[in-house]
Amino acid sequence: MKGRFISLEGGEGAGKTTLVKSLRDTLQARDLEVVISREPGGTPGAEILRDILVNGATDRWSPMTEALLMYASRVDHVEKLIKPALERGAWVLCDRFSDSTTAYQGAAGGVDLHQIALLHQACLGSFKPDLTLIVDLDPDIGIKRTVNRGEDASRFERFDHGFHSRLRDAYLNIASAEPERCVLLDGSRAQREVYDAAIEAIDARLGVQA
Question: How many CB atoms lie within 10 A of CB 149?
Fold first, then answer.
């Protein structure tokens, strides 16, 4: 049986990482093989690219250079981890995928969205997640959450308020443009409520229930 590919998207501090782990536990309890991963990253080569993308000064790379590096990482990730897992019937839960490039480097960073679409087509063709859960949250709340965790801020977390506002708008636009693939979750709600809404979406869209 073919596996399923679910991506989780949203701005900084939206709670995607916590949600991924909760969804993994639930799906594993349904006797499914679950692989969790992240972008950029997920494979040894992609993790090297992640390090140079998320660290350093905010102006270290131009948005177009970031997009190219993201897709270099993504191709390796898809070829070496995601597709093999799907082919053996596993479910893949990925913290960010191609929508992040559309949002971060495209709408927020200023790279023409048509160019990003062409880049995706050249690198991955029509390959996309079966379901994308977009956790929507006020960017001020999200950044405050990352600060409260006491972690060093990544390059992207250090971008200005305007960048993060454009980022949120981009995700809302993606959800509106592709309702058959995307489900919008209210990240301001309690973690349990966000989780419940995510499981409801998985069961309704992908047809797998306990």
Answer: 8
Distance CA 7, CA 91 (A): 11
Structural domains in the chain, sorted by start: 4-206 (3.40.50.300)
List, as one string, the DSSP characters of 159-185. S-HHHHHHHHHHHHHHHHH-TTTEEEE
Locate 37 and state its tokens.
């991963």
**Any idea which residue has 């073919």 for tokens?**
2
CB neighbour list of residue 67: distance below 8 Å, 6 or more residues apart: 101, 105, 106, 109, 111, 115, 116, 119
3-state secondary structure of 148: helix
| Omega before residue 40 within 30° of 0, cis | yes
Segment holding 7, helix H or strand E: strand 4-10
Question: Alpha helices, DSSP H only, in the chain?
Answer: 16-29, 44-54, 63-77, 83-87, 98-100, 113-124, 139-148, 161-177, 191-206
Tens of pLDDT, residue by residue over 80-121, are: 999 999 999 999 999 999 999 999 999 999 999 999 999 999
pTM: predicted TM-score of the whole model, two decimal places: 0.91
Q: Which of 183, 186, 189 is nearest to 201 (CA)?
A: 183
